[in-house]
Specification:
This protein is an alpha+beta fold. The protein has 2 domains: 200 residues, tt1808, chain A (Alpha-Beta Complex); 230 residues, no CATH class. It is built from 17 helices and 10 strands. The strands form 3 sheets. A 6-stranded mixed beta sheet has the order 1-2-3-4-5-6, sandwiched between helices. The protein has a two-stranded antiparallel sheet with strand order 7-8. It has a two-stranded antiparallel sheet with strand order 9-10. A hairpin with a 2-residue loop joins strand 1 and strand 2. Helix 3 crosses helix 6. The longest helix is centred in the middle third of the chain and has 32 residues.
Length: 453
């Protein structure tokens, strides 16, 4: 980046500065041989994922304007030739060339970058068949581009400008500090690095993405609950374990306790009720784990941990944690709860009110403690780094399982540029996905004999 900023010259012609950008990307983030940044037909620049076929398959399109050119867009005014040209290039590529693999579209003048999502261009322009047809009818190969820009594309941009969202970056903000060592650890530099990375611009799959659902986490959590995903005639469902049922898993204990309820007329209804209860409890426990991680972050040096078998020895205490601690302001708690959980704040959330399904049947204090076999692919390890085996108290297993993951917060990450064990990171975004999935499962649990999603 320092070389790019040093050599940008507004006095030079456009081609000179455009080559600087191509060289910058090719020698940095796109230095791998499977990538190429180069010109593309009448498009100024493009990024390709397969250099052998780059003449026909770009995935990122650039419209380039020389520094200080008047036809460059600005944050306050997108109604400029630079955008009109980019829209034309996009229509040609998406509609004429049938290239549906475009990921991003970028306007730049070396310093500034306006980055648009392809899906936005598709929604606003490519799906408008009337608009597309007008562009293609006029785009005959003759010199009619000025007519296309001014008579067809400009009115459409004026109509849709308020919907044209983009990410804006000005590399000049790093000009005075680019040579300082600490710049690479700054949040702004890391953000720009990620923005321009192949993972983002090319939308590549990223197995260690902290904001995706961790399948190992999810699978072992389901096991502790006592269920598994199953595909029946192409439909995903949540069912009791086919083999290796654990009597003291959460669902099996709840299922057993529900025997004899007259409102549950068959096994399917009984399982649905058991799953609804367990999902309610797990939802709360995951929320508590995130809260605990935030308390640890904000109270460095103090032991504020509370979600473990030392503080919560059984399901009775866990129920008290839900209803007598989380659901009550500190001054309204019993002396026992104040002493047992002195650092846990009150959060005014309906999550810790008795749920309708609990009122109909029973809370978590209604099931019995016991041991279950540890998951064959467990994340838990012994002192020698080997996966543990045998049995473990279900409640202790749940807490230990959660402890094996890093429920990192944004405050934690402010001090770190890179996570060294990212496959164990379960941050707020991942928990959001878990919560969303749990809510989806819960929504359907009373409609089917298994859960569709």
């Amino acid at each position: 980046m320092s070389e790019l900023l040093k050599h940008i010259n507004p006095e030079e012609h456009e081609e000179f500065n455009k080559n600087l950008v191509a060289e910058f990307l090719n020698k940095s983030l796109y230095s791998d041989k499977k990538y190429l940044v180069n010109t593309y037909q009448r498009t100024d620049l493009a990024i390709y994922t397969e250099t052998g076929t780059h003449n026909e398959h770009p995935v990122v399109l650039f419209e380039f304007k020389g520094p200080s050119r008047p036809d460059m867009v600005s944050k306050d005014n997108l109604k400029k030739r630079a955008l009109f040209e980019l829209i034309l290039y996009y229509i040609r590529e998406e509609i004429k060339n049938h290239n549906t693999d475009i990921k991003h579209l970028i306007i730049t003048n070396c310093w500034e970058y306006f980055i648009f999502e392809k899906k936005l261009f598709y929604e606003l322009f490519a799906r408008n068949k009337r608009f597309v047809q007008k562009v293609l009818d006029a785009d005959t190969g003759e010199d009619k581009t000025e007519y296309i820009y001014n008579a067809i594309i400009k009115p459409e941009v004026e109509r849709l400008e308020h919907r044209l969202q983009f990410v804006y970056v000005d590399l000049r903000t790093f000009d005075c500090k680019i040579h300082k060592e600490e710049v690479v650890n700054s949040k702004s530099f890391i953000a720009v690095y990620k923005l321009f990375s192949p993972t983002n611009l090319l939308k590549l799959p990223f197995s260690s993405d902290h904001n995706t659902l961790n399948k190992k986490f999810y699978s072992e959590l389901l096991y502790i609950m006592g269920v598994e995903e199953d595909i029946d005639k192409g439909v995903h469902r949540i069912k009791r374990l086919k083999t290796g049922k654990q009597s003291f898993s959460l669902v099996e204990q709840t299922y057993e306790k529900l025997e004899g309820y007259s409102s549950l007329t068959n096994e399917d209804a009984r399982f649905e009720a058991a799953l609804g209860l367990v999902l309610t409890w797990i939802n709360r426990v995951l929320f508590l784990k995130l809260l605990e991680s935030q308390l640890i972050c904000f109270n460095q040096g103090r032991d504020v941990k509370f979600l473990d078998i030392v503080h919560i020895q059984d399901y009775d205490v866990l129920h008290d944690m839900f209803m007598q601690v989380m659901a009550k302001p500190v001054e309204e708690r019993t002396e026992e709860m104040k002493q047992r959980f002195p650092d846990v704040p009150y959060l005014n959330s309906s999550l810790f009110e008795l749920a309708e399904v609990e009122e109909k049947f029973f809370p978590i204090s209604g099931i019995r403690m016991g041991e279950m076999d540890v998951y064959a692919k467990t994340i838990l390890k012994d002192g020698n780094g080997k996966k543990i085996a045998g049995t473990k108290s279900t409640l202790d297993y749940l807490f230990s399982f959660l402890d094996a993951y890093d429920f990192g917060t944004e405050q934690d990450k402010a001090h770190e540029a890179v996570r060294t064990d990212s496959n164990k990171l379960i941050n707020a975004s991942v928990l959001g996905l878990i919560f969303e999935k749990i809510k989806w499962l819960q929504r359907w649990s009373f409609l089917y004999s298994g859960i569709h999603y």
